[in-house]
Write a structure and sequence with these properties.
Number of strands: 9
Number of helices: 5
Helix content: 25-40%
Low-confidence stretches: 1-28
Mean pLDDT: 87
Strand order of the largest sheet: 1-6-5-7-8-9
Radius of gyration: 15 Å
């Protein structure tokens, strides 16, 4: 499974790397001194995306944060889990809900490297995620602005604030490299 729960602490040294507290993300550069908080957390999502790529999954990563603390991070895992719903966003929401013993995830921000699809966006609405920040836009199946916007459809009983395009170049590059390698160059 590609779930990472827990917190990170700064590594010794000044290279910007973070040291894990018992999870899979060892020695990954997770922030730069000039990063905004959204960029900082998106770098954590990018690290989870890299872990997914290493496992042969489409490299999408997500982290769920509440009050400035990491609740959980995950990369895509539909292939490894034999589960078509095992998108990174779904995995972080499922894990956090279980950890918190509450299916409502109010007060959280979900960071994901690719614009959520309709399944994930609908689950975020049901979970009452407060805010979503995503990296690359998905013109094929994006459901938060590219193809449609589930967060702004009339009649919703919950509204999610969202920002797209945070570290979009880096997030898109991870996907492009992965698919270029799959196609042989």
């Amino acid at each position: 499974m590609y779930l990472i729960a827990g917190a990170y602490r700064p590594a010794n040294g000044d290279n910007g790397a973070m040291e894990s507290t018992g999870n899979l993300l060892e020695n990954v550069a997770l922030e730069k001194p000039t990063d905004t908080p959204d960029e900082r957390w998106m770098r954590h999502a990018l690290a989870a995306a890299q872990q997914a790529a290493t496992a042969g999954e489409v490299p999408v990563g997500a982290v769920l944060v509440r009050e400035g603390k990491l609740l959980v991070a995950a990369g895509n895992a539909p292939i490894g889990l034999h589960d078509p719903t095992a998108h990174a966003e779904m995995l972080v929401m499922r894990t956090a809900a279980a950890q918190l013993a509450d299916y409502r995830l109010g007060g959280t921000t979900l960071y994901v490297t690719l614009e959520p699809c309709a399944m994930c966006a609908a689950a975020m609405l049901h979970a009452r995620v407060e805010r979503v920040v995503f990296g690359a836009w998905d013109p094929r199946v994006g459901a938060v602005g590219s193809r449609l916007n589930l967060f702004q459809m009339p009649g919703q009983n919950h509204r999610i604030d969202f920002i797209g395009g945070v570290l979009a170049t880096e997030c898109g590059a991870v996907l492009k490299r992965f698919f270029a390698a799959k196609r042989g160059g």
